[in-house]
Each structure stands twice: as C-alpha cells, then as structure tokens.
Amino acid sequence: MPGASLSRWTLTYFACALLCLVGAEALMVMGFGFPGATIEAPETLILVHLVAIGWLSLLMCGALFQFVPVLVARPLLGDELPPVALAFILTGLVILLSGFAGMTGLVAVPAEAMPLGGLLLLLGFGTAILSLGRTLWAARPLTMPARFVVVGLAALAGTALFGESFALILSGLVGGEAALSLLLNGVPLHALLGLGGWLTFTAMGVSYRLLAMFMLAPETERFSTSVVLATGTLTLMLIAAATPFALAAESGLAGMLLAAAVTGLCALGVYGSDMLALYRQRKRRNIELNAVAAIGAFAALLAACLLLVFLLFSGSLPEHVGALTYLFAFGWLGGLGLAKLYKIVAFLTWLECFAPVLGKRQTPRVQDLVDERHAAPWFGVYYLAVGLGTLTLLVELPLVFRIVAGVQLFATLAIIRHLYRARELLNVPPDLRRGFARPHPFWPQPIARKLP
C-alpha cells in the first residue's frame, strides 16, 4: 500500500466522528435523552442520530475510503468526492439535529427544516456511495469482503431514504394514512437497515480482511463466509420487503421481522465462528492490542444476540429495546471502531511518515507509534462501562446510568489521547523521528515531509 494511495480525508472523517462520540457521551452524562426521556422523544432522536450518523457512519465512511481500494486492489475512483460528501453529511446532520431540538423548544428552528437536513444527508451519503460504488464496479469480480461492502452500501441507501421519509412526515409536509402508518411501524426497519445492514454488515466484511491482515491469518475464502453473505443478505431483503406491511399497518410485519431475526442470528453465529477461526489460525503468536480489544466487541455482539433472544422469548423487547440498542451500538459497533482506530491511525501515520524511506534509513515499527501497555486498561474500562450501562438500563436506574456513562466518556477520552499521541509520533524514540515533521493531525499527506 504505497504512500500515494493514502486517503487524505480519512483522518478528517475520523476526527469528526470522535467529536460526535464525545458529544453523545457527554449528553448521556447530563441525562439528555434516553433513559431520562422516552425512546421516541426528540431528545432521544438527537442522541441516536448523533451516534448513528455522526460517530458510526462517519467512522465507517472514512474507513471505506481508505480500505475499499485495499479490498479490490484498485485506486479509489472519484477521490475528489470524499470532502464533498463530508460537507453534505455534517451540514445535513446539524440541520436535522436542529430540527429535532426545535421540536423540544430548545432552539427556534421549525420542523420544516428536517427534510432539508435529510436531503443533504441523502446527497452526502449518495456522494460517498458514488465514489465507492464506481471503485467496486470497476473491480469486478469482487472478493468476498468487497461483496459485503456492496450490500452494506445498498442498506445505507435504504436507510437514508427511510430517514428522509420520516423527516417529511414529522415536518407535516407529507401526510395521509400510509404516511402515519409508516411513521408508527417503519422505525424498526429504518434502525435495522442502518445498524444491522449498513454498519454491521459492512463492518463484518471489512473485518474479514483487516483482522486477517493485521494478525497474519489465512485470507482464503471459506464456504462459511459465503453462508454469512447469503443469509445476511436474505435478512436485509426481508427487512426491506417488510416496508409495504409497515405502510399498510398489516399484521404480516411482525412475521417478517421475526423471520429476519432468525436469519440474522444465524448469519451472526456463522460469522462469529469465522472470527474465532481467524484468531486460532493466526501466524502472529502475540496479537496486538487492536485485535485483543476487538474481542471485547465480539463479546458485546454475542451478549446483544443472547439478550435479543431472551427479550423475544420473554415478550419484553419493547420495554428494553433501548438497552439492547445501547449495547449493540456502543459495545459491538463502537467498541470495534475504537479498537480498529487504535491500529489504523498508527498504521496510516507510519505509511505517511516512514514508508517512503523504508530501506534507506532506520525507521520505527508501526508498534513503536503506540503505547499498548498504558492504552490497554482503558479499553477494559470502556467495555466494563458499556456492560454496566446496559445492566442499569435493564433494571431502570437512570441516575446510575449517568454515572457509568461518565466512566465511559472518561475511558473514551483516554483512548482518543492515545490516538493523538500515535498521530503526533510522541511514542517514537527521538532519534528515529528526527528529520521528519509531525503529520497534520486531521489527514495524512501523500508524501513524507522532511524538516529542512
């Protein structure tokens, strides 16, 4: 992966995503949104979209701009589009959140602004899909991980369309029985396509490649991986096919969602066995912190699946969907994101600063850019806080949840500090970094920059 192939906007996406994560966790500490408000309240909608769009979606887009070319061994087509997409997404997110805030009376923004925010988000994600889609189309036939990304991008398009539909309905610009029925019954479809399709399915595909690459595990395409792709795609098709039932408020919606839950759990089960095989077959005896920390994310995914099954059988899913979503978003998706960021930031920084002179002078290893001994405990604190936070939501202790959320925020800030230290080369011995300027903190340069 030569230095010229670095996506100069990936670190910008990551920085914006981390700011949104810190903001969302700070809101939870202050008691803003769920569980202090209902799951349908505008305050909760602000929190949910700040996490889903601001944190997780920006993180995923930034990672894809860098690693889709790695998945398909071709350069990114339309490399001028990432900053355009970022501008649309950030502007749309601010307007959408302002519209939600206007519904609560926090700001004087009319509800009619929400469709504009949704439209800008559609344009932003559409621009990202255009760049990534062109790259994937030109690389056919696709590798297995790349096929996961294609399905994930399709789910992103569906999620964004659902979101704009809800914005039009909430603003009062679109009405009627079908619109009201979609608003009342279609929110689970919107959430499942977003968290389950766009974010989870894409993360699954990328993890097959990145974990194998970073742990030196075999990258052969297993039959089980094809099973995951097929059953996962079927799950998302069932969710999308449930849309007419949501529009008509027909009883078949529950059956479609139950079928999607069964196939989805099967896909996740086989995926888990594939990840376990990667860890067992790795050639790197002592795995790095990013792979160790990812185990916590996989554990959170398993816990979320078990909790879903329990809630379905007990009939208490509607009462505890907030706790399940919190565990899924912060434990599985957020935990995996932070774990991989710990490696990716150091990896991209090393490529930018030291790869161009490899073999010409002494250079540090990628591991020399990080301080795993001091960073590792903070990942443990983060996962512990998420686990305790889930428990407090299940037993309905909102005040205790705010305290635990404070611990989660502190752990997140500590991890971000380690990312900053890696980016600024602060862990590299002075004699090895002498002669190189520190890279820009927000995006990597395509070539190394030597000090005069």
Automatic annotation (TrEMBL):
The chain crosses the membrane at residues 12-34, 46-72, 84-109, 115-136, 148-169, 189-211, 223-247, 253-279, 291-314, 326-354, 375-394. This is Transmembrane protein. It comes from the Bacteria. InterPro entries: Cyt_c_oxase-like_su1_sf (IPR036927). It comes from Devosia ginsengisoli. Keywords: Membrane, Transmembrane, Transmembrane helix. The keyword Transmembrane applies.
